[in-house]
Amino acid sequence: MPSSYRIRSRARGMAAALGLAAMAFCAQADAATALPESVVMVPKKSGLFTTELETTLYVPEGPGPFPIAVINHGKASGDPRFQARYRPLIAVRFFLERGYAVVVPMRQGFSRSTGSYIGGGCNVESNGREQAGDVESVLNYVTAQPWADKTRIVVAGQSHGGWTTLAFGTLGYPGVKGLIDFAGGLRQEQCVSWQQGLIGAAGAYGKETRTPSLWFYGDNDSYFPPFAWRGMHERYVAAGGRARLVAFGVFGGDSHTLFGSPAGAPIWQPEVVSFLREIGLPDQPQAEFARYAAVASPPASGFASIDAMDRIPDQSAAALGGYRVFLGKASPRAFAVNAQGGWGSAWGGDDPAGRAMESCARKSRAGECHLYAIDDQVVWKPTP
């Protein structure tokens, strides 16, 4: 990858043209459980103290060693301890079907990881470096495993995880070939000129980083306005960092959600494929890992219009109420139902179809759940 950079710009509203139903993933009830998922607590020693970092591993079946893809989580509002374990299933499947082992660490103070979140006050540069230390500890554990290829690593992250990824780049960790930043940063509205703090810190990171990186930002990001992320990129590159910016314009109601949305996959995945090829890492799906590929959503069935309440197989008050709530949510969204009684819905985040099916299964006493609607289309097909 050349040291110079280029900016790729997408037409505004591209996501709307693609259609949110185009890439709805993991529609089968067992989609999540079919993944080779395990959770380990990775120790991180610091002086006399040891914290444990809750880390989700997705290791393909086979002899390995496998290249490694690390995916870093963002920071939700509220107490980090109440933040759920991160499971970015769209990206996990993307890397698994290309033969990667995927590592998803929860940093100190998040979810079941011990210790306390170290915010660093308004020093956003320090914040990123603290977070990067947790990623380093997890990679030290991972690269010691027999299934890990410690010479082929890519590190990615979304939002605060993207910022953590950029900070991690300053460590020059052996074997890391590339960094991928999805809307990286940390919104600190309580801090004066916090956007300028991000820009300055990005310059500091760029000065210390020689690993090539790929950045994704959109114009309608609810966290970071264009002047902030463009300034971050310009300062990073001016300081010597190697970064290609994908400025994809407007995405849905909030471009900050691109990475976790099924509709975002057609935007980021081709760019990541090109980037992986540029840095010499596997970029194409491999036949032996095809079972990990995403399951496409079923097409519209024509059974009913999306707002036809009287056609829902479960006509209980609870199901009808749940469907009304579903109709009020923005895509991505999914509604599942059991003709013998039971329903479930989910929206936003990763794999809403799979989560809706899981919710329906929990509420059902007999029979099977099936998807009823995805986004704005009814996909239900009555059993003959």
How does CATH name the architecture of the largest domain? 3-Layer(aba) Sandwich
Instruction: Please state the oligomeric state of the protein chains shown.
Output: single chain
Total discrete domains = 2
Outline, from the CA principal axes?
globular
Q: Helix and strand succession?
A: EHEEEHEHEHEHEHEHHEEHEE
Please give the count of helices: 9
- The overall pLDDT, averaged over residues, is 89
Uncertain regions spanning at least 5 consecutive residues: 1-33
Q: What's the total number of strands? A: 13
Blueprint (SSEs and pairs):
Layout: E1 7-9, H1 14-18, E2 37-46, E3 49-58, E4 66-72, H2 89-96, E5 101-105, H3 124-142, E6 148-158, H4 160-168, E7 176-182, H5 194-208, E8 213-217, H6 226-238, E9 243-247, H7 265-278, H8 317-327, E10 333-338, E11 343-347, H9 352-363, E12 369-374, E13 377-378
Parallel strand pairs: 1-9, 4-5, 4-6, 6-7, 7-8, 8-9
Antiparallel strand pairs: 2-3, 3-5, 10-11, 10-12, 12-13
Helix pairs in contact: 3-4, 5-6
